[in-house]
Design goal:
The chain is of the alpha+beta class. The chain has a domain of 86 residues: Thrombin, subunit H, CATH 2.40.10. The protein contains two helices and twelve strands, in the order ααββββββββββββ. The radius of gyration is 49 Å and the shape is rod-shaped. The model has no long low-confidence stretch (mean pLDDT 82).
Length: 300
């Protein structure tokens, strides 16, 4: 008995993988066929009937769930719409701000250009007028900066040697003489004004023919100096550049450029010359654009 083998029962066989896959495929095929059958019956059946009644009952039964799902989803949908609209509003606001900034810049540029129009019109009229110096052309230039030193009356213009401008070239506005060029760069130049301490211009009184030197006087005003007491100069007389007297020593300024008007004439017993105050025609403290006189052979 001890040697005899004990026969054990075999385990119950498990369904094979092939069989399980076959069952799943069969169920899928049955469900698809069933769905197609129901769809076919629904389309081909009359408007009323048992199938439509069954569909109505199913819809009525599912209606509460649909309402509940809609109510649950509504806050999330509203939150999403709010966030989306807020994001779009911020993007639109940023775009509009850029447009407004661009419009403001364009508006300011247009206003700046409009403020320069009267000065440019005066320059054009003077350049085309009969008193414009012969054998000269004009290089119109924009004033881009003023000297920061209280002792140097200078400004910088946006034109230089590339436009034919040279040192000592006369500079004027549509009203009258401004000064002369003292330093030149390819695309800019430094201009010394009449009110600078280093500026001297030979001038002539158009009404009386009296000659003198216009330069800076006491208090920073312009004076007509070197006018003897016996000469006749009256308030209101107009002064222009005297031009070249001796061809061997040509003057920096051609004849006839308006300088200013005599504002007052005083005489003292101890002084050798008249004290003649001059008001310049050009508004030297507010220049937007000027014209530089360039000899015709140098103008480009």
């Amino acid at each position: 008995m001890l040697a005899s083998s004990v026969q054990q029962s075999k385990p119950a066989p498990y369904p094979s993988k092939v069989r399980s896959a076959f069952v799943r495929r069969t169920v899928v095929v049955v469900l698809v066929l069933g769905a197609l059958t129901l769809l076919t019956i629904s389309f081909r059946s009359p408007a009323s009937g048992a199938l439509h009644d069954l569909q109505g009952i199913g819809s009525s039964a599912l209606r509460p769930f649909q309402i509940a799902a809609t109510r649950v989803a509504t806050p999330f949908r509203d939150a999403y719409d709010y966030v989306d609209s807020l994001t779009r509003a911020k993007s639109e606001n940023a775009r509009l701000r850029k447009q407004v900034s661009a419009y403001k810049a364009a508006y300011l540029n247009a206003r700046a250009a409009a403020t320069q129009l009267p000065a440019l019109e005066k320059l054009l009229r003077y350049e085309q007028g009969p008193t414009f110096p012969k054998d000269f052309g004009a290089v119109n230039a924009r004033v881009i900066s003023w000297s920061s030193s209280p002792f140097a009356h200078q400004l910088t213009i946006a034109a230089g040697s590339s436009s034919g401008i040279q040192r000592n070239s006369p500079v004027l506005s549509g009203d009258g003489l401004v000064g002369r060029v003292v330093n030149v760069f390819p695309d800019s130049a430094i201009v010394t004004l009449l009110t600078d301490a280093q500026s001297y211009v030979t001038a002539r009184d158009l009404q009386t023919g009296v000659r003198g030197i216009v330069h800076r006087g006491p208090g920073g005003t312009l004076i007509l100096d070197d006018v003897k007491k016996q000469e006749v100069v009256q308030s209101g007389d107009q002064l222009v550049t005297d031009g070249t007297r001796n061809p061997r020593y040509p003057d920096l300024y051609p004849f006839g450029i308006p300088i200013g008007r005599v504002s007052s004439v005083d005489v003292t017993d101890t002084a050798t010359f008249l004290q003649v105050q001059v008001q310049p025609f050009a508004n030297l403290g507010s220049l937007d654009s000027v014209a530089v006189l360039v000899a015709a052979k140098h103008k480009r």
